[in-house]
Amino acid sequence: MNLSALPAFADNYIWMLHDGTQAVVVDPGDAAPVLQALDAQGLQLAGILVTHHHPDHTGGIEALRPRLMGPVWGPARERIPAPFTPLAGGDRISVLGLTFEVMDVPGHTAGHIAYAQQGDGETPLLFCGDTLFSAGCGRLFEGTPAQMHHSLSQLAALPAGTQVCCTHEYTLSNLKFAAAVEPENRERAQYQARCEALRAQGLPTLPSSIGLERQINPFLRCEVPAVVNAARAEGAANDDSVSVLAALREWKNRFR
């Protein structure tokens, strides 16, 4: 199975998974990169996975329908261009012979879902949209800090080797913030150097992994004393993980 990140807009990635004949894409905000990749590699479009309703994740669906030979899957509680197959947490779907479990991960939007690969003997994949980023998390447009904390905790509990396929190239910006939160985190510093080298070559920093994110992502480390102390200094009401996450997210919103 082949996985690639198709750049779109200023910093989006549309993930494509294919077996050499058929492909599925995740969150196609723009049809053009998908059509170009399908034509260049002689692939049929077998399906589309959608994590949430924002236009930079759904805007290319209609233009792709003439090439689509399978379903559009998306969150049942969000405004996805119809027709689509609605999904909710606990559902399972088969994609190119791989099984994905659907996870409810609200916070960025109210009905956001993620797709976590189960078993299949492959390196597991996670398509998490804008809930989890490398070294960061999505803004809370429709959800609460408690919802986001629960969503991130679910994702952090996935196997350490799970590849984190998020949909924006925000890594260096997120790592700059992570350095302000945990300046003594050696794993973060090493990862930042690797990511800077990748970006200097014009390469994606993604996918990351769940195991790495547990080490370097402050939003997955809301119980670590250094992170708690940094959040308290920025206004966290107490040491509770939800209060810490809320303070971190507000801090990140204004961080430059």
Automatic annotation (TrEMBL):
<feature type="binding site">
    <location>
        <position position="108"/>
    </location>
    <ligand>
        <name>Zn(2+) 1</name>
    </ligand>
</feature>
<feature type="binding site">
    <location>
        <position position="56"/>
    </location>
    <ligand>
        <name>Zn(2+) 2</name>
    </ligand>
</feature>
<keyword id="KW-0378">Hydrolase</keyword>
<protein>
    <recommendedName>
        <fullName>Hydroxyacylglutathione hydrolase</fullName>
        <ecNumber>3.1.2.6</ecNumber>
    </recommendedName>
</protein>
<feature type="binding site">
    <location>
        <position position="130"/>
    </location>
    <ligand>
        <name>Zn(2+) 1</name>
    </ligand>
</feature>
<dbReference type="GO" id="GO:0004416">
    <property type="term" value="F:hydroxyacylglutathione hydrolase activity"/>
</dbReference>
<dbReference type="InterPro" id="IPR001279">
    <property type="entry name" value="Metallo-B-lactamas"/>
</dbReference>
<keyword id="KW-0479">Metal-binding</keyword>
<dbReference type="InterPro" id="IPR036866">
    <property type="entry name" value="RibonucZ/Hydroxyglut_hydro"/>
</dbReference>
<comment type="similarity">
    <text>Belongs to the metallo-beta-lactamase superfamily. Glyoxalase II family.</text>
</comment>
<feature type="binding site">
    <location>
        <position position="130"/>
    </location>
    <ligand>
        <name>Zn(2+) 2</name>
    </ligand>
</feature>
<feature type="binding site">
    <location>
        <position position="57"/>
    </location>
    <ligand>
        <name>Zn(2+) 2</name>
    </ligand>
</feature>
<comment type="function">
    <text>Thiolesterase that catalyzes the hydrolysis of S-D-lactoyl-glutathione to form glutathione and D-lactic acid.</text>
</comment>
<dbReference type="InterPro" id="IPR017782">
    <property type="entry name" value="Hydroxyacylglutathione_Hdrlase"/>
</dbReference>
<comment type="subunit">
    <text>Monomer.</text>
</comment>
<comment type="pathway">
    <text>Secondary metabolite metabolism; methylglyoxal degradation; (R)-lactate from methylglyoxal: step 2/2.</text>
</comment>
<dbReference type="Pfam" id="PF00753">
    <property type="entry name" value="Lactamase_B"/>
</dbReference>
<dbReference type="GO" id="GO:0046872">
    <property type="term" value="F:metal ion binding"/>
</dbReference>
<dbReference type="GO" id="GO:0019243">
    <property type="term" value="P:methylglyoxal catabolic process to D-lactate via S-lactoyl-glutathione"/>
</dbReference>
<feature type="binding site">
    <location>
        <position position="54"/>
    </location>
    <ligand>
        <name>Zn(2+) 1</name>
    </ligand>
</feature>
<feature type="binding site">
    <location>
        <position position="52"/>
    </location>
    <ligand>
        <name>Zn(2+) 1</name>
    </ligand>
</feature>
<dbReference type="InterPro" id="IPR035680">
    <property type="entry name" value="Clx_II_MBL"/>
</dbReference>
<feature type="binding site">
    <location>
        <position position="168"/>
    </location>
    <ligand>
        <name>Zn(2+) 2</name>
    </ligand>
</feature>
<keyword id="KW-0862">Zinc</keyword>
<feature type="domain" description="Metallo-beta-lactamase">
    <location>
        <begin position="11"/>
        <end position="168"/>
    </location>
</feature>
<dbReference type="InterPro" id="IPR050110">
    <property type="entry name" value="Glyoxalase_II_hydrolase"/>
</dbReference>
<dbReference type="Pfam" id="PF16123">
    <property type="entry name" value="HAGH_C"/>
</dbReference>
<dbReference type="InterPro" id="IPR032282">
    <property type="entry name" value="HAGH_C"/>
</dbReference>
